[in-house]
């Protein structure tokens, strides 16, 4: 499967952005999916994940209550709605698919998008 992340950009603190991850292929609806981010000089970190059906959602403590993850299997697309953004949310955001094993470890994911930059100014 190929993944294409989009929707990043500059935003002021307290603002919102919605990221999208468009997937190719018929298997999208069977994959667990996740969002990760990587800030300069830091390791890639887990942000959120969603089960194949969309019924189970998982969030990093740092974004819980501010971000939400969703998916539309009819459109082969996953979303990350980011509200109340903070400067520390600045990073390149990546979507990923089909983890083997746990959803929290980046190394478990088989497929990755190219990343979209989110820059939050204070």
Précis, in short:
The chain is mainly β.
Indicate the topology.
Blueprint: E1 3-6, E2 9-12, E3 17-23, E4 33-38, E5 45-50, E6 57-59, E7 67-72, E8 77-82, E9 91-99, E10 109-112, E11 116-121
Parallel strand pairs: 2-11
Antiparallel strand pairs: 1-3, 3-8, 4-5, 4-9, 5-6, 7-8, 9-10, 9-11
Distance between the termini: 37 Å
Q: Report the strand count.
A: 11
Overall outline: globular
Percent helix range: under 10%
Count of helical segments? Answer: 0
Radius of gyration over C-alpha positions, nearest whole angstrom = 13 Å
Structural class: mainly beta
The major sheet is characterized as:
7 strands, mixed
As residue ranges, the low-confidence spans are none
Let me know the average pLDDT.
Answer: 97
What is the succession of H and E elements? EEEEEEEEEEE
Instruction: Estimate the strand proportion.
Output: over 45%
């Amino acid at each position: 499967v190929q993944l294409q992340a989009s929707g990043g950009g500059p935003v002021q603190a307290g603002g919102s952005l919605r990221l999208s991850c468009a997937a190719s292929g018929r298997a999208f609806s069977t994959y667990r999916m996740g969002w990760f981010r990587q800030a300069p000089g830091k390791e890639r970190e887990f942000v959120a994940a969603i089960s194949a059906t969309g019924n189970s959602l998982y969030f990093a403590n740092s974004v819980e209550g501010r971000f939400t993850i969703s998916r539309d299997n009819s459109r082969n697309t996953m979303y990350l709605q980011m509200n109340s953004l903070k400067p520390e949310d600045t990073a390149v955001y990546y979507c990923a698919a089909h983890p083997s094993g746990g959803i929290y470890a980046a190394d478990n994911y088989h497929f990755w998008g190219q990343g979209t930059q989110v820059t939050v100014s204070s």
